[in-house]
Amino acid sequence: MFEQQLFNGLTLGLIYALIAVGYTMVYGVIELINFAHGEVYMLGAFLCITFIQALGVPLFPAMVLAMACCAGIGVLIDQIAYKPLRKAPRLAALITAIGVSIFLQNIAMIIWGSRPVPFTRSAVPAAFSETAFTLGSVNVSGLQVFIYALTIAMMIGLTLIINKTRIGTAMRALAQNATAAALMGINVNRVISFTFALGSGLGAVAGILVGMYYNTLSATMGYNAGVKAFAAAVLGGIGSVPGAMLGGVVLGVAETLGAGYVSSQYRDGLGYAVMIAVILLRPSGLLGKSVGQKA
Amino acid sequence: MTGNKTALKLLGLAALLAFPVLPFSSEYVMHVAVLIMVYAVLAMGLNVLPGFCNLLDLGYVGFYGIGAYTAGILALNHNVSFWLIVPGAIALGALCGMLRGAPTLRLSGDYFAIVTFGFTELVVLFLTNEIWLTRGPLGLPGIPPIALSLEFLGIDWRYDFLSEIPYYYLGLAMVGAVYVVMCRIEDSRLGRAWLAIKEDPLAAASCGINLMAYKTVAFAFSAGVGALAGCFMAQWSMFLAPDVFKFWESFLVLCMIVLGGLGNINGAIVGAVVLIALGEVLRVLLPKLGLPAETRFLVYGLIMILIMRFKPGGFFPTIAATSKKSRLILDLKARLQAERAG
């Protein structure tokens, strides 16, 4: 039983990690808590089932399409809402972020209705719902294998992009010092757009995976996922990409075990409790830089 | 000039007092008016953190819920009088406010925003799951109305608030009291310290302002006002359910103060009037367009984005020291002007 819980927690944790990475990258680059990220995750899931249902696209191309759309949405959010406020006080940008989040949530509610919707079962390969293999006492479903393979591949890809490519280097430079990076000839706006696109694309994948895993989508799913993924990002150290990955996994495991052994009603509150504990005991997170007293 | 202004204010007050007896005021209009007052108090209370201290609070409605459930449970199960509940609920709210803010005292404002973001959710979870105390999702029906009573003096006289009209006057008194307290605080040593922290925490600290102490007072004060609004609401609506205190409400209150201008007490009240009235209009209008009534938040979200983009100070931006009446500031101003002239 414990092994099964642990395994399920890891599956969930990997998905949280995908969302948390989007928060942490944007925070690293422009120091803004992008509250709308949870909504991008929700839109990813809804766009995917819309492509499947309305256009008859098979699952995997639909995922890629949804990812591309969400990357575009992420860039648009930044261009329309955040970019004009780069030089404005922090509070203005934060308030705009929360406004965008509510706005998108309601757009989704108008398009797809306010009731939860099931994921299109017929599009999901039958192998996903069967047990792929059994490891000791742990049953691993095909979907879980898929989630593991996809999320780990994406994180390896992301790490490579950040560490090995020119644009990744530019992102890290921007995170350290935006002015100096601009002086070195880095096109700051392009790098910020790229960061939003990358983070939103990963968020969309996470949304689709959660939709398949729980077989339910709702317009308000972004809020809870947002709070949790943010907790994961804080747990790992806000601004640190490996930290967000680790934080997501730890949070997912903690949440599943907490729901199994402590209290299932407070499942959603657990991420919050973890976040408060981290902020109290180690505000820099597991892998983050130290954060001093700041304004 | 000042005579005119005073006359105008008195006229406005008279209009407010006479409002319930005017011909066009129906039970519905009174209901909306009382709702506006509840939200005006919430908006003024929330305003303390983002407006005076530059800290974004996204979970303010949590305190509203704490106050409301405190009043609901005490009045329903233990038959405690409203007048005794209010101080207790304010104290409880203030305590929760301090506890919520405490972890972020040494950190940047972003961390405060994060902590508050999930706070409403936590309160809703508590209210939903602690069924022994709150009856969970069933809600608390049949909360007794507010009553004026002299029974504790042995005099057999009792007046129950059964229609909207007594709530209207009580609400007016509540808004007035909170307004006066807010204005006095903004103009006091405490308010000036908050504004200094808002402008530049480092400079404020080096001027001898104890950041942690002043922030803690702000957390407690803001939360206490929220709990007060909650008490009033519980015994006015006579029914409570956890769903009333979801994140959306926090957003709505935040939208009010953004609209009115962060930090402006008058603006907070105007924001409450405008957005509640707008909400009532949209509640009727949206179903006619075939949209669910919840989508009115689309409009609020849009308002928030547009204001931050084009009018970041809101419609009534605060300008430092214009609303101040303190002798100290006025003297300083006069001296500066004299020096500049000379």
Helices and strands, with pairings:
The complex is a heterodimer of chains A (295) and B (342).
Chain A lengths: L1 H29 L6 H19 L3 H24 L7 H23 L13 H4 L1 E5 L2 E4 H23 L1 H11 L1 H6 L4 H27 L6 H16 L4 H21 L5 H15 L14
Antiparallel strand pairs in A: 1-2
Helix pairs in contact in A: 1-6, 1-7, 1-9, 1-10, 1-11, 2-3, 2-4, 2-9, 2-10, 3-9, 6-7, 6-9, 7-9, 10-11, 10-12, 11-12
Chain B lengths: L1 H17 L8 H27 L7 H17 L4 H20 L7 H21 L1 H4 L5 E2 L5 E3 L8 E3 L3 H23 L2 H11 L1 H6 L4 H27 L1 E2 L6 H14 L4 H24 L7 H15 L16 H15 L1
Antiparallel strand pairs in B: 1-4, 2-3
Helix pairs in contact in B: 2-7, 2-10, 2-11, 2-12, 3-4, 3-5, 3-10, 4-10, 8-10, 11-12, 11-13
Descriptive account of the structure:
- The complex is a heterodimer of chains A (295) and B (342).
- By secondary structure, chain A is mainly α.
- Chain A has one domain.
- In chain A, 74% of the residues lie in helices and 3% in strands.
- Chain A has 12 helices and 2 strands; from the N terminus they run αααααββααααααα.
- In chain A, β1 and β2 (138-141) form a beta hairpin.
- The model of chain A has no long low-confidence stretch (mean pLDDT 87).
- Chain B is mainly alpha-helical and 342 residues long.
- Chain B has one domain: ABC transporter involved in vitamin B12 uptake, BtuC.
- Chain B is built from 14 helices and 4 strands.
- Chain B has helices at 2-18, 27-53, 61-77, 82-101, 109-129, 131-134, 164-186, 189-199, 201-206, 211-237, 247-260, 265-288, 296-310, 327-341, and strands spanning 140-141, 147-149, 158-160, 239-240.
- In chain B, the strands form 2 sheets. Chain B has a two-stranded antiparallel sheet with strand order 1-4. Chain B has a two-stranded antiparallel sheet with strand order 2-3.
- The interface between A and B is large, with 51 and 48 residues.
